[in-house]
């Protein structure tokens, strides 16, 4: 079951990265202390505050929001922008289970959340997933803010995903991904996990596996510049919204090319993962030999992931049904690679 999370903040725009990060654990409700309080909150398994506790009114507002959770023993993580002794004492006085710096590195924050939610300790697969998620969060945040992508964090994420694939337990990876709520994170982690398992099944050497998984991690990086209202829209997109979405391959391509830190195959995957062998894809309408093997692999994983994703507005396809849909696309996809992909997702 997804873990319901409550984020209390007095700076909602600056807390957007934190909100998206928390949504990795499950549905995340946000209370903005500058707006009227919402009543009737569903029970939460974790409460996080990103609030200036030097403001007495804010302290009382946080205390009110966490009162029910305190009675039920819900873990409360308090993030402080100023870790002075006075504010640390204040955080503990209102019931913090843990007090951390608001500027804590993503991986350390995720580790602490994991500790609060699973005191008995995480499994190796869960630890790998946390590491992969941390790198993904830093990457998407930097991309959305127009900053250089954090190469070391991306490499750490790729390494964690490949080590998870070594366990040959794709179902366990998918279960972890599905337990989290943000659509963009979920899709990127699904595609990356599938691509890593695919490359492992094909017997790729370590360097080639790293290349394929890196391409999968970065394939949708252009979506970091697409408004969240469009990415998270549950209903049918308008023609204008579709046009905006279809810009993400070129945006991602230009982003990676401009930074100059990524292999050609990775940059190609960002631009061409919606291309089809019969020339009906976008943005360039490439055909057959114009599409590399790495891109062909990422396209298969990307489409399969979209079919099995769990959304509030659509039921996921079963593995057999999703794979049959890929086969039904005929000449659009590489038939040899698709045959090899079958045993990865639909074991005999």
TrEMBL record:
Biological classification of the source = Bacteria, Pseudomonadati, Pseudomonadota, Alphaproteobacteria, Hyphomicrobiales
Q: Where does this protein come from, organism-wise? A: Bosea vestrisii
Q: Which residues cross the membrane?
A: none
Q: Which Pfam families match?
A: HD_5
Entry-linked Gene3D superfamilies: Hypothetical protein af1432
NCBIfam families found in the cross-reference section: HDIG
Which keywords belong to this entry?
Answer: Hydrolase
- A GO molecular function for this record? hydrolase activity
Query: Locate the HD domain: which residues?
Result: 184-314
The protein's name in its UniProt record: HD-GYP domain-containing protein
Q: What class of enzyme is it?
A: hydrolase
User: Has keyword Endoplasmic reticulum?
Assistant: no
Domain named HD-GYP: residues: 162-348
Q: What is its EC number?
A: 3.1.4.-
Looking up SMART domains in the UniProt record yields: HDc
């Amino acid at each position: 079951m997804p873990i319901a999370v409550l984020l209390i903040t007095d700076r909602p725009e600056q807390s957007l990265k934190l909100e998206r990060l928390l949504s990795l654990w499950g549905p995340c409700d946000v209370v903005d202390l500058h707006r009227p309080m919402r009543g009737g909150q569903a029970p939460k398994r974790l409460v996080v505050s990103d609030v200036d506790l030097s403001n007495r009114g804010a302290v009382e507002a946080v205390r009110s929001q966490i009162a029910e959770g305190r009675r039920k023993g819900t873990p409360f993580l308090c993030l402080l922008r100023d870790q002075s002794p006075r504010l640390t004492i204040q955080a503990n006085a209102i019931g913090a289970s843990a007090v951390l710096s608001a500027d804590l590195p993503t991986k350390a924050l995720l580790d602490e959340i994991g500790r609060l939610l699973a005191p008995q300790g995480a499994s190796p697969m869960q630890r790998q997933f946390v590491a992969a998620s941390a790198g993904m969060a830093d990457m998407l945040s930097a991309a959305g803010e127009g900053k250089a992508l954090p190469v070391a964090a991306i490499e750490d994420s790729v390494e964690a995903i490949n080590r998870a694939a070594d366990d040959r337990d794709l179902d366990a990876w998918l279960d972890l991904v599905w337990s989290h709520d943000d659509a963009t994170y979920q899709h990127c982690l699904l595609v990356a996990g599938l691509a890593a398992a695919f490359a492992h099944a094909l017997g790729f050497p370590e360097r080639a596996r790293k290349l394929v998984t890196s391409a999968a991690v970065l394939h949708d990086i252009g979506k970091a510049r697409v408004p969240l209202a469009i990415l998270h829209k549950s209903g049918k997109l308008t023609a204008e919204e579709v046009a905006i979405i279809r810009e993400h391959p070129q945006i991602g391509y230009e982003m990676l090319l401009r930074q100059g830190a990524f292999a050609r195959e990775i940059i190609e995957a960002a631009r061409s993962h919606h291309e089809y062998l019969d020339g009906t894809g976008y943005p360039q309408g490439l055909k057959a030999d114009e599409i590399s093997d790495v891109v062909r692999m990422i396209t298969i994983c990307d489409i399969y992931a979209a079919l099995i994703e769990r959304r509030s507005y659509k039921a996921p396809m079963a593995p057999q049904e999703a794979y049959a849909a890929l086969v039904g696309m005929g000449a659009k996809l590489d038939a040899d690679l698709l045959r090899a992909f079958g045993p990865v997702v639909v074991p005999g």
